[in-house]
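Changelog-adjacent note: as of this version, every example in the card shows the full chain rather than a window. The one below runs 157 residues end to end.
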Amino acid sequence: MRLLIIPILSVFMAAAVYAYPVSAQVKLLPRTGAAIHTYLLKHIRYPRPLQEAQVPGTVHASYTIKEDGTVTDIVLVSDAFSGQFEPEIYRVLSAMRFEAGPREHKKKDFLFRMADYLTLPADTLKNPGGPVVVLGYKPITCTTMVADTVPRSLKPR
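Full-length structure tokens:
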């Protein structure tokens, strides 16, 4: 009896997986400058080690949007600290998917800056034609010691 149940269950499970495919669809971006700029501001993060060390940087990116909406030919050039900021930008650019359309070549600058030292005008931060400004913040450090955080039941006697 056990030998018959296992193959029958596997057939039903395979049919269930085939009948209900994963419905996670990627939202396609329009090819407008404002949509691209907003997407990049939302998804690019300041690399944690560089943020903790308060290291700023600038990266110039160029990429091609193919007819089917995928991004290829990503070229990243960094002004300083080569190889530090590029993986994050490459991750986000390669994940973008656009609506179908003609082949386009785009360029974008990325400024990684600490919020304390930011001297850019406020309108630059949200200007779709301008650079993408990624803000980093100083790490929070605890300057006072907490007197007793271990419960008495866990303390050695």
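Structural remarks: The first strand starts at residue 57 and ends at 65.
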